[in-house]
Amino acid sequence: MANEAYPCPCDIGHRLEYGGLGREVQVEHIKAYVTKSPVDAGKAVIVIQDIFGWQLPNTRYIADMISGNGYTEISAILKYLKQQCHAQKIGIVGFCWGGTAVHHLMMKYSEFRAGVSVYGIVKDSEDIYNLKNPTLFIFAENDVVIPLKDVSLLTQKLKEHCKVEYQIKTFSGQTHGFVHRKREDCSPADKPYIDEARRNLIEWLNKYM
Fold it and tell me: In the annotation, is 29 catalytic?
């Protein structure tokens, strides 16, 4: 575990020993990890990784978790999802840097039926509330990267201006990276929060896709 007094934003937690259930593919100039649901439900989720990249076992673990709940997941492009995975409904999930990207993309592309931004840095701009479709924001109370005042700013902006469904959840006592960078068995006190956040992620996708 990294020293939390001087953290790289996502360098907090554990690197999982996990091989993955999916496969690597080449989509034009992009390399990606694809894991498919055992049931073809016509739905897909794009997972945007943190700064450690798409090959991080933790990201693949989350991708496989999502696909096990009825979604095809791929870190690639909409065209591939629609043509090769036959996805009719597409959602997007991101962690840290990827969480910030999700927030941006949910304001730009109506193709994404649902979004989940997990500890994405909040930018102080006038259009942070202009979401096109339902978005869930997950934050950690003790995140040294994202102060609670930034979460309060986002909450205020969305409450005043947002015209679609959204939810902001801040998990007590947790730190940056807790959803995908901590093992479930790392601490009995942390496990309920890790499980709840992952369950909330899946429930949001199920509700709006």
Answer: no
Is residue 161 annotated as a catalytic residue, yes or no?
no
pTM: 0.75
Mean local confidence (pLDDT), 176-192? 76
Catalytic option among 11, 50, 103, 143: 143
Angle, in degrees to the nearest 10, between helices 57-67 and 191-208: 50
Pair 42, 209: CB distance under 8 Å: no
Catalytic residue among 10, 11, 50, 96: 96
DSSP states along the chain: ---TTS--TT--S-------SSEEEEETTEEEEEE--SS--SEEEEEE--TT-TT-HHHHHHHHHHHTTT-EEESS-HHHHHHHS--SEEEEEEETHHHHHHHHHHTT-TTEEEEEEESPPPP--TTTT--SS-EEEEEETT-SSS-HHHHHHHHHHHHHH--S-EEEEEETT--TTTTTSS-TTS-TTTHHHHHHHHHHHHHHHHHH-
% of the chain with per-residue pLDDT over 70: 75
96 has catalytic annotation: yes
Catalytic residue among 85, 176, 180, 190: 176
Tens digit of each residue's pLDDT (9 = 90 or more) over 94-134: 988 889 989 988 998 898 999 999 999 898 776 789 999 99
Amino acid at site 64 = D
